Fold this protein.
Amino acid sequence: MADDLLKKIIAHSKEYGFIFPSSEIYDGLSAVYDYGQNGAELKKNIKEYWWQSMVQLHSNIVGLDAAIFMHPKVWEASGHVGAFNDPLIDNKDSKKRYRADVLIEEFRAKYEAKIDNEVKKAKKKFGDSFDTEQFFKTNPNVLRNQNKIDKLNERFVKALNDNDLEELRQIIIDNEIACPESGSKNWTEVRQFNLMFNTKLGSVSDSANTIYLRPETAQGIFVNYLNVQKTGRMKIPFGIAQIGKAFRNEIVARQFIFRMREFEQMEMQFFVRPGEEMKWYEYWKEFRIKWHKNLELGNDKYKTHDHDKLAHYANAAVDIEFDFPMGFKEVEGIHSRTNFDLSRHQEFSGKKLQYFDPELNESYVPYVVETSIGLDRMFMTILSAAYKEEVVGDNGETRIVLSIPPALAPFKIAILPLVKKDGLSEVAQKIFDKLRLHFNVMYEEKDSIGKRYRRQDAIGTPYCITIDHQTIEDNAVTLRHRDTMEQERISIDDLIKTVEEKVSMVKLLEGLI
């Protein structure tokens, strides 16, 4: 069922101009995608929502746009050259390669799913009298599965922290974890694989000119933090936000745009006093969860997951997960990065990266709290929640609708003259010219009005405006609502104000204040 939904979303994305396989006329390039005309608009609107909520709503956060190419010592200092690896394992029969840690996490998720099913059945049976906490303490099936999870976690976390590749493989063997494609349990050893792309700078092809495509955008912020602080006269605590491309040579890239080799990140690094990082970590964790739920995609579709293994730079980390068609997966991470990055860049560059705090009258290397969200994963979050197939009318007709939050929709309004004659097109064109100064508007006059409604539903347009013969008499149009399909008569003079209240980014941002 989940696989079917994912396939439908992929097909819909291509058919309606959201996402195309890259270089498709040459049979495509694995795990690389292009955003079509509607996808580019949705992507832009997601960026705008993030940027305004982080920069515009916070007077102590500013933006940055750092270069993709950086001095290679940046990546030595950050630890990416030596430690940016994935533990990979091959199945000897299917010849497929997987991340060993992901195989174990997905196996663990099956036990978690069994517990969730037990809870759902009990809630249905006992209704309002159901005591969740007591159920977890007493139900034998829940206790048995939780015990299996705890024992698995104990071995798994230790293996990750010890970087014990043999133990990771042994966990897979002992739990009889099979290849998802073939069902085979014939595994190779686990090996580490560095994810960074490298290339050559200039015309001389020697090792001294090796540079890397950045695997994250954060380091561009760290090496510029003093430039921004001094020129912006920023006082701690303050943040630097950035949206940009990153590149990882993912061997097991799959699941559509969830895991790609070229992707886009929306990251913010928040610089704080040493000792205050956990206070701000909790603040940003709460704010970022609020940001997601503010879109009203379904609060039950989110959960948080504290990291089993902390990265070498972190002292706390949590993932915000969304219920995608393939299950709960990470869409955003919040990390307390300590002062690792700035200290390492200070060490490797020989330049002081300390901040003088006038209130404390002392200098220190700031601690950092990071929020990092994948733009492409957020795009997939929207599609996954918005895609619906509904039966409409008495004849069993089905419509596909993308219930995208109106402020993020590619087009806010479609202008639809009922027919192309009797002067309706001319009136529609005047309305189009008036509204496009305020909104991204589409004009359509081909096909029947019913087919045009269905096409707008399929790309997620919140409102359609139909110009009919009565419009010429009463200077009013029919406003159709995407989600309810209800229609109301409204004066042309009131259109801008009425639609603005429904699709405004400001209205969305108000939910965060």
